[in-house]
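Repro:
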Amino acid sequence: MLERTPPHNIDAEKAVLGSMILDNSTIQMVDGLITAEDFYHEPCKKIFKAIEKNHKKPIDILILCDILRESGQLDSCGGVSVIAELPDNIPSAANIVYYANIVKENSVRRRLLEAAYEITNMAFAVQEPLVEIIDKSQKQIMAINPVSGGSNISTAKEIAKQTFTEIEARSKSGLIVGLSTGLRDIDDITGGLHKGELTIIAGRPGMGKSCLAVNIAHAAGLRGEASLINSIEMPNETLMIRMLSPMAQIENRNLRRGFIRGPEWEYLAKATTNISECPIYFDDSPNITPGELRQRARKAKQEYDIKLLVLDYMQIMHTKSKGDRREQEVAEISRTLKGIARELNIPVIGVSQLNRQVDQRPDKRPMLSDLLEPGAIEQDADLILFIYRDEVYNKSEDNPEKGMAEIIIGKNRHGDTPVIKTVFLAKYQQFRDLQREENAPWRRIHDR
C-alpha cells in the first residue's frame, strides 16, 4: 500500500516492554495510553499482548517466556535471548510514558497514512457521489483518535445526578469545597482551590509569590493532603527552611545561617519532626520541560495520590521546541499546567512573573495586562492572585502598610474579584490572615 516504510520506532517499542518487565508498577502507567495495535514490530506486539493479558500477575523474564512458550509464540518473538535483553537496554523504567508517547505518535501517523491512501482511492472513484466520499473521509479521520480511553460524552441525566450529589456533599462540608489555601479570607471568596483548575500566583520580585505558593502546599501537608512542589528557582533545602521557620518561629535568615540560640533548638527539632510527617514532596530539577513535568505529576499522583501541584516558576521553564518565541513557550507551559489539572483532577498552582511596566506607574498594584505573556495565562487560569506589598516600594519605618500584603484577585472564574488584606511576616516568610486563628498550624509547636 505504502511505497515507503511507515513511521515507527522499534527502540521505543522495546523500551516500553523493557520498562514493564523491569518495574511491573509501570504497566499501570501506560494503561489506556497505548494498546497492542499501536506497536509496529510484530514480536513487540505479541509480547505486549502477553504482558497485558497477565497484568494482574507478577511479570519477569522467566514468567514472560513461559507465557509466550505456552501460546507457541516464543520463537517468533526471538526466543529467550531477545526477551532477556529487553530490560537491559533502557536507562530507567521511570521514562515509560515518554517511550509510550513515541509509540503512540507513530501509530497515529501510520493510521493517518492509511486513511489518506483510502481517501485518495475514493476521490478517484468518480462513480461514487461526492457527498458520500466526503462523509466517509470525515469518519475515517475522526476515527483516528490519539487519546485513548473512549468517549468522554455523558448524558444530561448522568451529569445532573453527579452534580446534585456534589452539591449535597458541599452543603455538608461548609464554605470550603476545594483545597484550603490556609488563609481563611481567600477561602471565603474562592471556596478553596478546586480540582481540575489552574491558579496563577503572580507578582514582582520580592513580593512573596513563591512564599505564598509554598505556604499553601505547607498548609495542605499539615492537613494530610499530599502535594508536589516543583521548584525550578530554588533548591529543596531553601523551601524546607521556609516551612520550618514559621513552625519553629525562628527567623528565616537565622535558619539559613545556622544561628540558633538556646531553646530554639527544641523548637526546631519539634518543627522538623512535625514537617517530616507531612506528605509534601519536592522536585528541584533545574531543566525540567512541560512534558517531563506532566510525566512526573502522573507518577506522583499514582505513587503518592497528590492533591496539589505547585510549579515555581513558569517563566524559568523552557520547552524542547527550537525556534519558539517566548510567548509560544509560556503558552505551552500554561496549557500543560491546565492539562495536568484536568487529567489528574487536582488543583495546580503556577507561579508567574510580572513585567517591569508596573513599576513605572504611580499605582503599582498589578493588573492582568501586567502578566508576562498575558494572553495564554489569562485564558487558561481559573484563578489569578496578584500580590502587592507597599513596603517593597516604600521602605520607610513609619509606612502604615509595613507588614501588610494585598492579595488582589485579578480573575475568579467562579465569583468576585476583591482585594484581600493579609499580614506578611517577612522574618518567617509567611502570609497570615489579619485575624490570627488560635488553632493555626504554626501554634502546634509552641506558643510564644
